């Protein structure tokens, strides 16, 4: 029997694999349809599999847009705080529709803005991530065009997603889309838009959210186990939402539910399963988007976020002039309510983002010392962020990264 032909490995994908740099966004699959496919690999991350040789142009484009290999951010005259990136305006807010506010993870502002974009004719539909129909803890890319469908997709999904993988079909449809994705997804999409006018025309509005990292499916299974159940018994699973911050909720086939607090599900379980690329991410705050939403947590006396259930409040960041215009229009249309917010208070209510940005230079330095590939970051003020850290904390992050990198892979 003849052996299968050997497929020459893509240099770009090989570098990503060697450094464990894949974010799982699906951009490479979109750029080389039929030659690269996204598949789930242990312990439950999405990774590209090369099915056929790539031509030099495809490989070069993948290398240029892959968020695992790097990111370039330009302030272009906008305010550019070290930890948070360029913006034009920042505020807090919430959806004025109580149902939308309740369904969203943090005030429903993102969902309400999406509804406005469709109702006003700015876009025809929304590309976003929702629950997978065949895996309760999994994700699937959805194309939504109604308030009902947007509400159904609301709420954070702490699991792998590759929303760029089907980009070619969306571009070919001739429709205009709002794209909602993780900061890495958005960075890759912007880079693709800069190279292809058809992609830019298909996605006139790009939205994102603050991201603390992508856990594997093993993390979702661990939450179910802690709830005393498993995938076979689970008909539906919700990571967050239906309140703020909302409970992790597993619903069995008989309709019975088991719940766990956000503090326990994310803080004690899911955050321990985040992929390597996310731990060396310079942009968890969506710098490439037009609009970004996040949790505007209340803080306790020590400045740490309070996770008690309350009416949701979103942090809303306009990164571009278009974003600011669309936020104002959504407010004028009665979709959202907004209030002024001082961005200097953000470090206190987003400690995870703050600490990861400050630790990044130490982590990258440790990996470089070992000869490991790392992303190339431009304009993300990595040195300035590290200078906000005490030397002792930078050393701790450096040594911790060395130790993890030298540990044999499972």
Features:
single chain; 410 residues; alpha/beta; 8-stranded mixed sheet; 3-stranded antiparallel sheet; 17 helices; 17 strands
Structure commentary:
This protein has helices at residues 11-19, 27-31, 56-65, 98-103, 109-119, 147-152, 167-172, 183-195, 197-202, 217-226, 262-269, 276-279, 321-332, 346-349, 351-369, 382-386, 391-406, and strands at residues 36-41, 45-50, 70-72, 89-95, 125-132, 135-144, 177-180, 205-209, 234-238, 248-252, 257-260, 291-295, 298-299, 305-306, 314-318, 336-340, 376-378. An eight-stranded mixed beta sheet has the order 6-5-7-8-12-15-4-16. A three-stranded antiparallel beta sheet has the order 9-10-11. A two-stranded antiparallel ribbon has the order 1-2. It contains 17 helices and 17 strands. It has 410 residues and is α/β, with parallel strands linked by helices. The longest helix is centred in the last third of the chain and has 19 residues, at 351-369.
């Amino acid at each position: 029997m003849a052996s299968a032909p050997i497929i020459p490995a893509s240099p770009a994908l090989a570098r990503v694999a060697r450094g464990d740099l894949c974010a799982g966004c699906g951009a490479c699959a979109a750029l080389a349809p039929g030659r690269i496919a996204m598949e789930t690999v242990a312990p439950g991350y999405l990774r590209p599999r090369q099915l056929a040789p790539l031509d030099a142009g495809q490989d070069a484009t993948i290398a240029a847009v892959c968020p695992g290999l790097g990111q370039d951010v330009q302030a272009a005259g906008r305010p550019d705080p070290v930890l948070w990136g360029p913006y034009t305006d920042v505020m807090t807010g919430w959806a004025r529709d109580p149902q939308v506010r309740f369904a969203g993870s943090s005030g429903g502002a993102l969902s309400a803005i999406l509804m406005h974009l469709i109702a006003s004719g700015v876009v025809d539909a929304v590309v976003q991530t929702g629950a997978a129909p065949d895996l309760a803890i999994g994700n699937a890319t959805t194309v939504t065009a109604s308030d009902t469908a947007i509400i159904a997709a609301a709420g954070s999904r702490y699991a792998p997603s590759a929303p760029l993988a089907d980009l070619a079909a969306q571009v070919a449809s001739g429709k205009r889309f709002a794209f909602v994705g993780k900061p890495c997804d958005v960075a890759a999409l912007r880079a693709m838009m800069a190279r292809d006018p058809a992609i830019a025309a298909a996605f006139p509005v790009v939205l994102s959210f603050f991201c603390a990292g992508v856990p594997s499916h093993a993390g979702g299974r661990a939450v179910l186990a802690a709830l005393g159940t498993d995938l076979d018994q689970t008909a539906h699973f919700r990571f967050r939402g239906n309140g703020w911050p909302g409970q992790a909720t597993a619903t069995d086939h008989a309709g019975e539910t088991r719940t766990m607090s956000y503090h326990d599900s994310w803080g004690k379980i899911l955050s321990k399963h985040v992929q390597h690329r996310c731990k060396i991410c310079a942009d968890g705050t969506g710098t490439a988007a037009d609009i970004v939403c996040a949790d505007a947590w209340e803080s306790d006396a020590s400045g740490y976020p309070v996770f008690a259930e309350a009416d949701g409040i979103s942090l809303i960041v306009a990164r571009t002039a278009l974003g600011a215009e669309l936020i104002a229009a959504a407010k004028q249309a009665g979709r959202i309510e907004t209030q002024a917010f001082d961005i200097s208070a953000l470090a206190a209510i987003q400690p995870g983002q703050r600490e990861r940005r400050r630790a990044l230079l130490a982590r990258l330095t440790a990996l470089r010392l070992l000869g490991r590939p790392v992303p190339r970051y431009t304009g993300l003020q990595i040195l300035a962020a590290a200078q906000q850290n005490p030397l002792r904390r930078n050393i701790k992050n450096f040594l911790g990264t060395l130790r993890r990198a030298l540990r044999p892979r499972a």
